[in-house]
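Bench notes, afternoon.
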Amino acid sequence: MTNLLIVFWTVFWCSHYGVDPTLPLAVAHIESRSPGREFRIGLLAGKWYGPYNIHKDFKKRWPDIAAIEGNCRAGVRGLRGQDKMKVLKRYNPEATQAYLAAVMKAKNRYRRILK
């Protein structure tokens, strides 16, 4: 059920902000996955709210990032823009080539799923 809520809210906010949902879903997956789980929610590693791995300091600005809907909204807002690589590097300034490749691979997977 949690996975469906994440997909629902991500697609909803993507529609609202004019974003292709495949990139945000891929980022949420890569940022929060664990063995056997597509997404994780809630407080991760004590300072990040999943599934979009938004740092707890942003809770002052967006108090609802601990909830799935608010986390998806903030994640999608952070992934707006035309140049996908520039958007990813802005979203995750510490992104490695391996991270970028994993996100793009997941993006292609979500493109097939959402057809």
